[in-house]
What we know:
Elements: E1 2-4, E2 12-14, H1 15-24, H2 29-34, E3 48-50, H3 55-71, E4 77-82, E5 85-90, E6 93-97, E7 108-112, E8 115-127, E9 136-139, E10 144-147, E11 154-155, E12 166-171, E13 174-179, E14 186-188, E15 191-193, E16 195-197, E17 201-206, E18 209-223, E19 229-230, E20 233-234, H4 238-252, E21 257-261, H5 267-277, E22 285-289, H6 295-303, E23 304-305, E24 317-318, H7 320-323, E25 328-332, H8 342-351, E26 353-354, E27 363-364, E28 368-373, H9 377-382, H10 388-394, E29 397-401, H11 411-422, H12 432-440, H13 446-459, H14 465-468, E30 480-481, E31 484-485, H15 492-514, H16 519-526, H17 530-539
Parallel strand pairs: 3-6, 10-11, 21-28, 21-29, 22-25, 25-28
Antiparallel strand pairs: 1-2, 4-5, 5-6, 7-8, 8-9, 8-18, 10-12, 12-13, 13-16, 14-15, 14-17, 17-18, 19-20, 23-24, 26-27, 30-31
Helix pairs in contact: 1-15, 3-12, 4-5, 11-13, 16-17
This protein binds adenosine-5'-triphosphate.
GO biological process, one term: regulation of DNA-templated transcription
Keywords: ATP-binding, DNA-binding, Nucleotide-binding, Transcription, Transcription regulation
Domain Sigma-54 factor interaction: 233-459
Amino acid sequence: MTEKNPLVEGLAIPERTRRLLIISKRDAPAARAGAPAGSNRGPAPRRARSPPCSRWARSWRSGARERQAKTAGGPRQAQRSSADGPVVRYGQALVSKRSVQPEARGTRVIEVAGGPRLVVPRGRLTAVDGPSAGHTIAVEAAPVVVGAGDDVDFTLADPAVSARHLEIAATPLGFRLRDLGSTNGTFVDGRRTGEVWLDEATEIRAGETRLSFTLEEGARELPLSRAMNFGDLLGHSPPMRAAFAILEGAARSDATVLVLGDSGTGKELAARAIHERSPRRDGPFVILDCGAASPTLLEAQLFGHARGAFTGATEAREGLFEAAHGGTLVLDEIGELPLDLQPKLLRALEGRTVCRLGEPRPRHIDVRYIACTHRLLEAEVRAGRFRQDLYFRLSVVTVRLPPLRERKEEIPRLVSHFLGKLAPGAPIDLPRSMLDLLASHTWPGNVRELRNVVERFLTLPGVPAASLLGTSSGAPGGAELGGLPIPVGEPFHEAKRTWTERFEQAYLEHLLARAQGNVSEAARLAGLSRQSCYRLMQKHGLRVE
Length: 545
Ligand SMILES: Nc1ncnc2c1ncn2[C@@H]1O[C@H](COP(=O)(O)OP(=O)(O)OP(=O)(O)O)[C@@H](O)[C@H]1O
């Protein structure tokens, strides 16, 4: 039996696989709501220790708790008390109030003579035993992902640890540990946990490895911008304003910039705004997607070629280095650049000359470079997939755009921004219930996903709020291609990009359905590398269990 996906009309997904996809879509509300309370195997989750919080944070989180209570299957609260203060039980989650000042543990903003600063406390994570005993890492402004994979910040050589096992992040409320859906679970002080606030000294177990987390003396101070946007990139949370301070400095200089951040966090917007604020603003702005083409094509695209340089090269062609002369070249998805092209790129960046393929004559180029990637490039270097010398050359200025889940206070403003853009002149507000739902989502597709949700809200009136999260969208205007609506209300380039994103998502859903959730098989069927397949899945918030 097949069932039509109401949001991608014309495309039918078999019911069994549709269930698989919906359940595995990260944070799919339907899946969460359907999960039986207490269905986790293993010991009961650890009581989440929650530090006292400022007023906005408290009301924001209390909304989340209510939602959590609802999705966990109704009013199942039981009051009890502990040494820390009153404890309120909501389904699986236990939240307690602590009496320690949050400043001692959380990030905070201070005003000093030179302008506002973000103060980030220092934590340290150390493997106490197991094969990686003695390994240690500082936990500061950027979250630390721990796992057995080689693309994480802290790799544990432990077969019982999942590739991406857990994450520790500094937040205004203290250091927060989150299990990333690991197979064998994360245990804090001996109890299995999903999410927990960490104390000054906490024992954590992942797989067979014992880890110790400790708070260290001192804190890092990061300058904050006073601005609430950088070009089209909106942001008023401290982590975004810290990023803006770096971007503003970078725009004034001609330095090479490395923009890091998960898919949909606005890396391309940041690159464009750097160019537009730089002395090169009147020069060309050229983007190369390093993950999109085969290595041979990529080389020809970058360097250009002489006539007859290879079969099919019937005409001489300039490459993107030359096309960007006098302006900015964005090396998008630089983490996907094939290893054998990396030394050639490095030579071009350092020598400031390029030779077209099949032509010995070097041509002078004057280009400013910005590289973007969703990968942890340092981890790629450690894993031998990215050359260290190229990494150093690209990371003259490094800026990381935080994921939306770390700055949920920005959601209402972003929603208004997208409503204004997508429905100009129509004074529309999102209902409170919808905003609450958005606050409880963890946004694997980041701001891009939020924009898509707002668009769905506008184009599918009457659809329940929960169904708007994490599914393909409709669009205004009525035009469609292959069953996917074309957003004719948008300018051409925006519409093309939106449609392409819809296509990618719909294609991927069907591909995974066809491959019964087997990513290797899906990649084989689509003629993609497994990495590209995972990248697209991450971009569209799809995950198979
Ligand atoms: N801070 C922001 N303010 C306003 N819009 C944003 C912001 N961040 C992202 N967006 C929107 O999200 C979409 C994706 O942004 P962008 O392409 O810059 O992300 P990216 O990080 O480069 O993603 P990818 O790695 O998948 O290429 C854009 O349509 C943009 O409008």
